[in-house]
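User: I'm curious whether this sequence folds into something compact or stays loose and floppy. Could you predict its structure so I can see for myself?
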Amino acid sequence: MFIVKFNISPTNKASLISSCAASAKGLKPGTYDLWLIASLKSDNNNKISIPLGQLTDAGEQQFHLRSQSNRSATKDLAVKQVVITADKQDPFKQTLLIGSPSLFQNVFYRDQYG
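Assistant: Here's the prediction. I'll summarize afterward.
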């Protein structure tokens, strides 16, 4: 069984920094990368991948990632998926786990920070 928790959000509406926190449980020992798959809000058809970082092995099949990014780099993007890949693999071709925001998360994010 795999469990993945992911959160990316501005610190507040005026913040220029977005924080990202992710954890995964159930992965075999190894090196894994976390990717954000998004599209421009003005063009929903073209997806792009943004590397968020490498998951850190915390032991007992648990991996974690915490990072911060410049909010201006992602403010015009609509999050489609979060993807875990093996080390340095293409997130469009070699995915291990994929997660998508729920309808309620999409509406909340759009209304609060969009």
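Summary: The beta strands are 3-10, 17-25, 32-40, 43-59, 62-70, 77-86, 95-99. The two ends are 34 Å apart (CA to CA).
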